Amino acid sequence: MPSAIFDVNETMLDLSGLDSTFSRIFDDPTTRREWFARLLHLSVTSNALGLRSTFGALGTEALDATGASRGVEIGAAEHEALGAAIRTLPAHPDVAPALLALRSRDWRLIALTNSTGEAATGQLTSSGLIQYFDRTLSVEAVGQFKPAPEPYLYATRVAGVAIDDVWMVACHDWDLAGAAAVGLKTAYVERAGMTFADIYPPATVTGADMLVLARRMLEHEAQ
After folding, report:
1. pLDDT tens per residue, range 15-34
2. What is the CATH number of the domain that holds 39?
């Protein structure tokens, strides 16, 4: 049975839903991208140094650092506002049709996120996407953030299928590079503002939106 592992934040959930919160905190919605880049940097550094943390805790650190760089004092109210906004992020409109297209062909679908399992379940429930997934998994089970190999191998074990029957779907080139390194097929959705670095192996398939991507995945499996 073909299986697909989906990244959650940015790939399926639209982080622009945080822009109003960042506008209130910083009077500048573009700080959302700065904050998320800091968060990803912290997660990769944590992997490299063997530090144990959660994505939520790193998100708190990243918000504090963003505030310090902008001369804005960050307190409990700001952290609570951001946390509430993250829990209720909307899905990109192309996601549900794509998931339905794969489910209708009996694909097994798994969500895999750097966030905690509790946070991911809440996000997918709020966005209406949880109905499409067989499992919602968090990297907390292996103590390593993506793109370390352990999260992808863990997800394939849970799926109970051979690695070469599994796809990783994401809008992040580094996430797909991590998946490709352990043998997964990769599917890259071209979200606005994203680029795919030439240093990484090219994705197996690429699509301008998630529905196009799902069709190309289905076509690839039919070959």
Report:
1. 999 999 999 999 998 999 99
2. 1.10.150.240
